[in-house]
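Researcher: Quick sanity check before group meeting.
Model: Go ahead. Protein one:
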Amino acid sequence: MCGIAGFNWKNQNVLQKMTRSLAHRGPDDEGLFVDDAVSLGHRRLSILDISAKGHQPMRFENLVITYNGEVYNFKQIKKQLESKGYTFVSDTDTEVVLYSYHLWGAACVERFNGMWAFCIYDKNKHTLFLSRDRFGIKPLYYYFDGGQFVFASELKAIRQHDLSLNIDKTGLNSFFYQKYIGGERTVFENCFKLKPAENLLFDMDRKSVTKRRYYDLEAHIAQAAQTPLAERLQLIEGTLTDAVESRLIADVPVGSFLSGGVDSSLISAVIARGRKDFKTFSIGFANRSYDEVKYSQLVSQHIETDHRVEYIDIDEKLIEHVVGQMDEPFGDASVLPTYLLSKMTRSNVTVSLSGDAGDEVFGGYDSYQAWNIARFVPDTVAAFAKPLVKLLPPSEKKLAATFKIRKFVDGFGADVNRRHLDWMSTFADTQRKQLLGEHFVGANCLIDTPTGASLLSVQLNDIHNYLAEDILKKVDFASMLNSLEVRVPFLDHRLVGTVLSLPARYRIRYFRTKWLLKKIASNYLPAEIVHRKKRGFTVPISAWIRKSELIRQYITDRSCYTADMLNYDHVQHLMTNHLNKKADNARQLWLVFVLNYWNTQFNPTAH
């Protein structure tokens, strides 16, 4: 995996600052291309053809590419290109991507199966072509003020330029609503994310940006639904197996995350059927409510992998390091154990497969069960239950029942997709208005949601929002800080479209989540693993807030509120109730800490 950067004028010194800020994404090599019109940079993590032949930026005739990603079907595409007369000097997928663009233009990305973020400079047409993969596994940011166009894998590279960057209040609202900044927005005005499945063309003469969505998941699902149901069901396990096998291609050591949940366990089991002494990795917590090591060890023994386990301690030094490396505020605290898991994994291998997206694709979240139950609960019953639920005591246990019940009843009366987002929210509208005052922006302006009230619409909501902006961003950030490449078999687009085209009963059946996936997994894994209760990768934030002087300082010290956007008195009210155990406000207080710590470190307007 790699880091990319560039802009539409000549300045090698600034370009090198950009690439060096991305050194963690590519520690193996650095490359620069500069002419009178453009500056393109690259940091390389060598995975395929680790020789100097894979050096980037790579050139071919009038084209120059800086590329981050893996196209898993590159060998098949390479054969097609060779039949058209192209000759190759390397065994990299970068060269395949470059020649594909030369032959097919922007439509080339529709042929790719993989994850990517890249830019191709066309010297003749004076254009920059940027593309991001279908589901947003790899990040791509850009800044555009009408004249200057800057892009990079991370915002920290863009910030190497002398730009006037102000906090975007809508982005800030998005952060406090869902703990991530969604859609094309970032924390800064004039800085954007290229959205998943988007291409961008920057005309360097006209100084214009044109974007086009090249992949429509909903249309793919509708197309898949035309295939007879029995045939689709027969295809799925084979497609999953092929997705896993294709993601093992590398010229460096490959391993797999193994939490003991059904998703990562199934991925690891598929790998282990064809490989002996395959390395798997997991981490454990001292708090038994959060620890799952015994399950990962059980799976490892069953599928016979070389399993590595480390027990972790999340301390203030780690929190400062990880939050201090964030491009923008990001509130999913599981980024901390993900970072430690990535660090341990990277000490053994360069590439790891993960079980991410199994829940979104196959239907594994509690909120999907809530959707199913809500269909049968009259609004009057929910209205009666709301005041009673408020009397339930708070709990610091992982996935506490009281937390789930409160979320369930609070959402009644809303549109299904809005209810789902509120279920996932940290500060819903009422609470966020108290926190942000005049800077408040309503949820309807923050996130685009699908229409409809079906399970599919709720899953699409998660795939376009939570998966892309939280899960995948977290994994990319945590893994790339450790120069580790993570691959996601469940996001093979052939698999996603086929699974989501199935009737809902193959995902949720009799209140059982991931029905089809568990049926497949039963051929690979012990029943104790397949049917055990979902746990998830969460962390004891409540205890951290009580014990950590660092966290409390950035929540209670008024001088830390340099953003001048939060209601300080309201935050202290939340803090007092939390410390007195009148309410568990840990999730809300963590977001305040993250913003304040990030802002005092990185916001150029902070003082």
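Researcher: Fine. The other one?
Model: Protein two, sequence then structure:
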Amino acid sequence: MRPAAFAIVLSLTTALAVSGRGQPAAPTPGGEQGRYATFSLLHEIGSETYSASPAASGGSVTTIAATLSDRGSTRASTWTLKTGGGFAPTFLEEKRAGAAADEVWRTQIAADTVTVEEPGGRRTLAQPPLAYVGFPGMPAALQMAMMRYWLAHGEPAALPLLRASDQAPPLEIRRVGAESVTLPTGPAKLTRYTVANLLFGREVLWMDAQGRLAAVMTFAGGLPQEQVLEAYRPAFDHLVVSGVRQEMADLDELDRQVRPEATGAFAIVGARLIDGTGAPAVPDSVVIVRDGRIVAAGARATTPLPSGIKVIHAEGQSLLPGLWEMHSHYSGVEFGPALLAAGVTTARDCGGEFGFLTAVRAKIEREHALGPRLLLAGLIDAGGPLGFGAVDAETPAQGVAAVDRYADAGFNQIKVYTQLKPDVLTAISAEAHRRGITVTGHVPAAVDAFGGIADGMDQINHLQFVTRAMLPEGSNGPVDLSSDRAKHLITLMKERQIVVDPTEGWGEMAGHPKSVSAASFEPGLRAAPFVLASKFEALGGPVDEGRFRERMAANGRVIKALYDAGVPIVAGSDTGLIGYGVDRELELYVQAGLPPIAAIQTATLGAARAMKLDHESGSVEVGKRADLMLVNGDPLANISDLRRVTKVVRAGELYDSLALGRSVGFRRTN
């Protein structure tokens, strides 16, 4: 576990004075420097240092250096920021170690002209009267400079960003609260803000009375990340709790924006019913919902409507069980409306922050806040620089204690991770099973899939751990499905009913060649908020297109072989495009040869079975939870019609899909 408090090691030559209502004064001639610690899932992964010096022109020059080491991958970046009067930026450049020559981020402002260069394009424009430079990621020192500019210019409601695309929305920065924290040097007062449109969702950040950024947290747009100025390390735990509380307030605001169109008792009439059981579709159906449950389902001719019941007309559409997203990293309250908009009514989180996840789960369950039903898999890894997350288990006893903490908090599963030792994995699995929960996750590096299953794993995240175990030791592939080793593993997984979520769509997104536009295989990017679309379009690398397609086809053959053998498969998108990532996963399963109904079941009844909840969810049957989705078209004929959601029913509350999406920036039309 991460310690609760740390020593102060701040080296700050000069702080900014603050006068009036948060208006920052100019830095004193001595300059300024500081250091931020960087965390992912509350696990420290690196640091960022900055140094600001006065410039001859009257402004300043700030240099920033960041080094992150995340699960064995080290990334180093430097930024140079030049500013003039009023903290106005005149130049920003990022340099990343190992980046290709065309992966440049640079903004230059000269003679009232702005030139912006990004990996996705280049643009020249007239300098607007008010705007800040755009930048990748969330470097704390750049956000501090951004906040100083915003404060100095009267806290505008919208702050345009200078990006290579004119589609970038302006930042929305809000002053949302104040709080005091206790440091070894005494109490300190902080002002809390939220920032929207820098990443997907709202960040939370704190400025201190000296105009320094004390800490910043992002819960959205990928895995959660935090940065804290060294002076405020002792208050880090307090700020994490405060940030979660702010997220819940942001969720309240989303709830006020989108209200259900029907609750209590209503009937959906005229749709093609695909109930998820594998039974033939019912072309003209009636499904009646009352108090969150399905009370009738069948053909219109044989399913009478109660007198006076509210009717939702759905002729020409298909009605299905709500989808299950079986590999989410639910990292912000904006995930809720985005997933619901895509028809996802149940989501399994596969490793997030304990405090945030339990808070948002409770708010969804008890207050019907916007979001799918959340199932939680508690993350456990070994510590050290290769570890992932804040819960470490170096010994069997520590593993048992971690399982008990998660089980006591109502988690549905344990997610094991790569650095665990075999004896710790065995102890975790035994305790999880004793507590009545299952074990999923990465196969630890010390064993392969055979060993992971022997040590008690019930499920495996990511197809790569299956394909690796099918290969002879030392081989890099391709997989020979006719080999004794591959057949042995498939037989073992079938006998033990080991559940696999392949996350094939995320492999496609993260590993595609730069020469292939991500929108060509993930059309949902065209409807996604700019900050998400640009993030995913920037992924990919110098991969040969032919080899990429061979890899995807080979993975498809493994998925088909698992399905043919009766190995349970469930659909999950990992950190792919929120909502649409599940659709892409199912499209890939159909491309691999699964019948459309079988692909649909990986995200409905099959997923419910994997989580031992099929008695009350996963299909459209009388007595089950009213978790439903309406789509234009027929996904049995064209699986991509699942992307065309019109309405979603979550626990008996019917919402408009487009309204849900718009609340968090999605622009889809049906």
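Researcher: One line on it for the slide.
Model: The two ends are 47 Å apart (CA to CA).
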